[in-house]
Amino acid sequence: MTEHAMIEPARYTCYRAAGPIAVNGKLDAPSWQLAARSTPFVDIVTGEPAWFDTRVALLWDDDYLYFGFRAEETDVRGTLTARDSKIWEENDLELFIGARDAYYEFEINARNTVYEAFWIWNDVHRPGGPYWGRPEFDPVRQRTLVLDGVGGHVHPRGERWGFLDWDFPGLKTAVHVEGVLNSRTHTDRGWTAEVALLWKGLELLADGRSLPPKDGDVWRIDCSRFEKIGRHGEVLDPSAGWTWNRHGYYDSHIPEVFPYVTFSTETAKGEL
Question: Domains in the chain, start-ordered, CATH in brackets?
Fold first, then answer.
């Protein structure tokens, strides 16, 4: 049994939206009231409870896959404004979508600033590989990162290329702060974030699956939160990491432990 096989990934059913969703960050569309919410995020290494409640809900329709995050926070902060800034260096929300030979990383802060990367495993990114020959994935001409692991953990599959200039086509995002951003009064309630991903943009991760999905299709999708500010207002280094289920390491980049998300063609009807 591999080290990652010892982790029990979360399981979630993603239902169809019950109506239109206007991406405004407030999660006020009726469909969000009917969507199943995840379990609270837990410490990425240990699985222990986090000190702020964080959850996500997923919905889909013929055009988009939707994510709705709710993050409890008494002092909502966000400073970075340039796209593809190092969002992980301050409080953020994140999502990862895994495929056989690649995965997508998305991060957002409370100012609605986005960071994205498309990661391809080096053992397949070569002539004849599924992503080879595409200009956007040319490691010579494109801005890239090379990663074999995070936080001292080295993935058994080894290195992967992260393509930093790849932007998800048709991406929609919005954030709503329940309080006053950067007020330092510790009276905020938290923030919500809404993300919509076009199914067409997920073609590179579909591995032959139908887009939009068929009833019962399963994808590996993880959602997480990194918190730079500690319980007493101190700056944490590294940030606290909270994920849908524990990873066993301080490493978000382990597709084998991403939750199993099963798509249902039934319309969301609320928590049972």
Answer: 4-267 (2.60.40.1190)
